[in-house]
């Protein structure tokens, strides 16, 4: 068989036959990759239907003076660009290190988080207590390097966390922090929201519509989603909206999608307004430094590069807004002389302002090694997958309009004194070739490695995710190559004893799933993976060992530029202004002091909405006149 006549057609245009089409498919595992490659080659040939944007890479800026410069076109950056450029007299520059988003990344069933070209591909430093059996003893951290940032590679799940998480950011000694109590943030969540599920929308206290970010459940439901939902139900969890401040629920999640297509903040906020004359978007542009005058400690410009070593300046009349995420913000700030003095000194960087940038790093954490097998799944045929791709391109429906079992998750409060859920049981389907599978003793890596779209699965990885881990780490510059090397990430996952104990407690509950009538009836069984060197250990000690060896970082990094009122333990104030520096704000997940009990993409959009409101208030005499971007 050849792939020539089975490639998807797009917008009526036949996709040209390219390369490889006569290559026999020997390894079904190569399928997804090959299809992705073909599709992406073809999209270059036929033009990207989604994006009318053209590459801006080689252009020089005719006028390099702007009112606002946004550093990083990710989750928060795209929201800010849209809101600020809604004020016609403001010139806004958005600089993004990655390239344009491509529609190939927007097929829900295709796991882009494994697609290296659009990732920063960072890793944690080795230590003796976590990620021990992961490659080179470190955990991968996968954040997006593409316009849209991590919303192009994330799981799209729309969760906000609990009221108590935000209320905990409030510090009674600092009046300004009152603004960050949950009750005062709801309007900013709702500002972006366009909720497409009527039962959810009915709760108008929490939800709204009319915003740019459409959120909705996937329509595609398969048998095992029902089985797992019912099994969690049997264990006492109710099917509820987790975004309505409930402590426990089994959830049929809502996702950032429109017409069954990924809706990144680029797709939702930026694409519709790319034509604005006062907005300049540069992709492939990596910011290397923020230029700060030493006397006034005021920001003047940023330096950015299309090519290594060729720095260009762009000047900001009003403010520079840092939105490069919790890891890359640290790199940019340290290179600019803002950071812990002792650390900067080691690298001969003159400190402009001594601030704890990079400390207080936190990530949510889980472990691999816990998987359930589903035996009666028929092998997926080549032709079915190709037909499903066609279906998706033609009508945005079918198998690929789904993230499979990942649509279901369960939030559980383990301890009475917790102020909300402690863990989320995240389910992730994977199709493991039957010849490997029959051996049962497959490695954790094989159990986790996607070779087919995630909506086909005969294995369910069950990840108990610690939503509010206690362990903290730090991010530093690469000692050997501060400017171009990967930053050093001492994540310290599972360093605190409480974290490992909670994780092991949560595994007990996951195992109870196997005893439910539902899972038994469906013949879903424990999958004995190769857990060397933990295979000989029994009970709690075994799970302790597994969690330390097969740790998984959730890639939801926060805290490195946390907000607070003192420059000793925070980087920005409650209006997100960098302590002691004029005209520099940080507006993304890095300002969160602690995690919220859920994902962080919706909270990050909220932060950007709130910051836009502050900026417009601070810089415009006549308020609200143009602030109606929606
Ligand atoms: C695999 C994965 C799955 C996830 N799943 C979910 C989920 O289902 N639900 C959820 O709520 N959250 C999820 N998250 C988390 C969430 O998506 C991100 O943490 C959040 O969106 C981060 O937003 P941000 O604006 O802080 O950073 P980002 O969105 O990462 O944006 C930073 C941007 O800055 C750019 N940049 C960096 N350095 C520079 C530089 N020097 N110059 C120019 N540009 C630069 C980057 O390329 C990027 O585009 C997931 C994350 C990952 C990685
Ligand atoms: C810092 O400067 C000193 C003195 O000039 C030099 O010896 C040292 O190698 C430099 N260190 C780095 C990391 O560049
Ligand atoms: C969804 O996408 C398909 C395929 O491009 C298109 O035919 C259909 O009109 C779209 N539906 C909506 C509601 O936009
Ligand atoms: C599982 O595989 C590992 C090597 O991958 C091997 O050392 C171990 O003995 C196997 N265990 C069983 C029960 O087959």
TrEMBL record:
Keywords: FAD, Flavoprotein. Residues 144-167 form the Glucose-methanol-choline oxidoreductase N-terminal domain. The keyword Flavoprotein applies. Signal peptide: none annotated. Pfam families: GMC_oxred_C (PF05199), GMC_oxred_N (PF00732). Its cofactor is FAD. Belongs to the GMC oxidoreductase family. This is Glucose-methanol-choline oxidoreductase N-terminal domain-containing protein. It comes from Plutella xylostella (Diamondback moth).
């Amino acid at each position: 068989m050849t792939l020539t006549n089975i490639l998807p057609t797009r917008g009526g245009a036949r996709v040209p036959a390219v390369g490889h089409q006569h290559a026999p498919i020997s390894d079904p595992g190569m399928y997804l990759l090959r299809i992705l490659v073909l599709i992406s080659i073809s999209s270059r040939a036929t033009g990207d239907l989604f994006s009318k944007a053209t590459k801006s890479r080689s252009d020089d800026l005719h006028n390099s003076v702007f009112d606002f410069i946004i550093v990083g076109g990710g989750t928060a950056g795209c929201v800010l660009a849209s809101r600020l450029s809604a004020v016609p007299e403001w010139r806004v520059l958005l600089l993004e290190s990655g390239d344009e988003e491509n529609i190939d990344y927007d097929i829900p069933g295709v796991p882009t988080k494994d697609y290296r070209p659009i990732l920063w591909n960072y890793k944690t430093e080795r230590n003796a207590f976590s990620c021990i059996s992961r490659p080179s003893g470190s955990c991968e951290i996968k954040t997006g390097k593409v316009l849209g940032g991590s919303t192009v590679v994330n799981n799209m799940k729309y969760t906000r966390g609990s009221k108590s998480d935000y209320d905990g950011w409030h510090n009674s000694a600092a009046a300004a922090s009152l603004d960050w109590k949950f009750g005062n943030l709801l309007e900013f969540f709702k500002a972006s929201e366009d909720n497409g599920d009527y039962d959810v929308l009915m709760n108008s206290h929490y939800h709204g519509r009319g915003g740019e970010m459409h959120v909705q459940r996937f329509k595609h439901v398969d048998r095992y989603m029902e089985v797992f939902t019912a099994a969690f139900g049997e264990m006492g969890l109710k099917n509820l909206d987790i975004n309505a401040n409930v402590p426990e629920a089994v959830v049929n999640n809502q996702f950032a999608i429109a017409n069954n297509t990924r809706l990144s903040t680029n797709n939702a906020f930026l694409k519709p307004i790319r034509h604005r004359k006062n907005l300049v978007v540069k992709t492939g542009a990596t910011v290397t430094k923020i230029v700060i005058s030493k006397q006034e400690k005021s920001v003047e410009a940023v330096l950015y590069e299309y090519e290594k070593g060729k720095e260009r300046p762009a000047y900001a009349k009003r403010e520079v807004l840092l939105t490069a995420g919790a890891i890359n913000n640290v790199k940019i700030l340290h290179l600019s002389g803002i950071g812990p003095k002792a650390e900067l000194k080691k690298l001969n960087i003159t400190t402009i302002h001594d601030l704890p940038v990079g400390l207080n790093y936190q990530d949510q954490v889980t472990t691999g090694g816990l998987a359930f097998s589903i035996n009666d799944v028929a092998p997926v045929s080549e032709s079915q997958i190709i037909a499903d791709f066609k279906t998706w391109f033609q009508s945005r429906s079918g198998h690929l309009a789904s993230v499979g079992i990942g649509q279901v998750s369960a939030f559980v409060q383990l301890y009475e004194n917790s102020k909300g859920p402690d863990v989320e049981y995240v389910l992730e389907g994977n199709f493991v070739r039957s010849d490997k599978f029959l051996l049962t003793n497959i490695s954790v890596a094989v159990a986790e490695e996607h070779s087919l779209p995630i909506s086909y699965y005969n294995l369910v990885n069950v990840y108990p995710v610690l939503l509010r881990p206690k362990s903290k780490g730090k991010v530093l510059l690469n000692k050997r190559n501060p400017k171009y090397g990967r930053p050093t990430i001492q994540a310290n996952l599972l360093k605190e004893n409480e974290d490992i104990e909670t994780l092991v407690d949560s595994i007990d509950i996951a195992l109870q799933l196997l005893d439910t009538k539902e899972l038994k009836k469906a013949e879903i069984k424990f999958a004995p993976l190769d857990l060397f060197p933990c295979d000989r250990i029994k009970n709690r000690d075994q799970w302790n060992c597994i969690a330390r060896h097969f740790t998984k970082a959730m890639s939801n990094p926060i805290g490195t530029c946390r907000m607070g009122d003192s420059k000793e333990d925070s980087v920005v104030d409650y209006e997100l202004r960098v302590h002691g520096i004029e005209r520099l704000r940080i507006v993304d997940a890095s300002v969160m002091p602690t995690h919220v009990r859920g994902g962080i993409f919706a909270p990050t959009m909220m932060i950007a909405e709130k910051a836009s409101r502050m900026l417009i208030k601070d810089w415009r005499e006549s308020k609200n006149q143009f602030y109606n971007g929606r």
